[in-house]
Amino acid sequence: MENCAWIFVGSGPEGQALKIKGINVWQHQWQRAPQSSAVVSDPSYGQQYQFAVYQIVDDGHTIEFAAGEFSNNVWVFYVPAP
Fold first, then answer.
1. 8 A C-beta contact, residue 54 and residue 31
2. Closest CA to 51 of 37, 65, 64
3. Which SS3 state, helix, strand or coil, does residue 62 take?
4. Alpha-carbon span 36 to 16, nearest angstrom
5. Could you tell me if 57 and 72 are in contact, meaning their C-beta atoms sit under 8 angstroms apart?
6. Considering only CA atoms, which of 51, 43, 47 is closest in space to residue 2?
């Protein structure tokens, strides 16, 4: 996953509803994707960060996303580009 492009999908305080493919990420257990990280760009300033990649399995569906804390309790989320 490290070499793929990542698309910004949202940000907000921890616990604030944020859905990826219809799944609210804060209502599910995140599993770290094996040996995966993502290089992403800040949507406002273009600065690059390296975030962990996670998976959520819900009702047989798996979503994958990169997430990290930009500032105190404010998280940003990215998904792999199609």
1. yes
2. 37
3. strand
4. 25
5. no
6. 51
9-65 pLDDT tens trace: 999 999 999 999 999 999 999 999 987 899 999 888 889 999 999 999 998 889 999
Distance CA 54, CA 51 (A): 10
Amino acid identity for residue 59 in this structure: D
Distances (CA, A) of 61 to 55, 64, 71, 74: 10, 10, 30, 26
Read off the tokens for 39. 């290089």
- pTM of structure: 0.90
14 vs 33, 70, 71, CA distance in Å?
Answer: 20, 11, 11
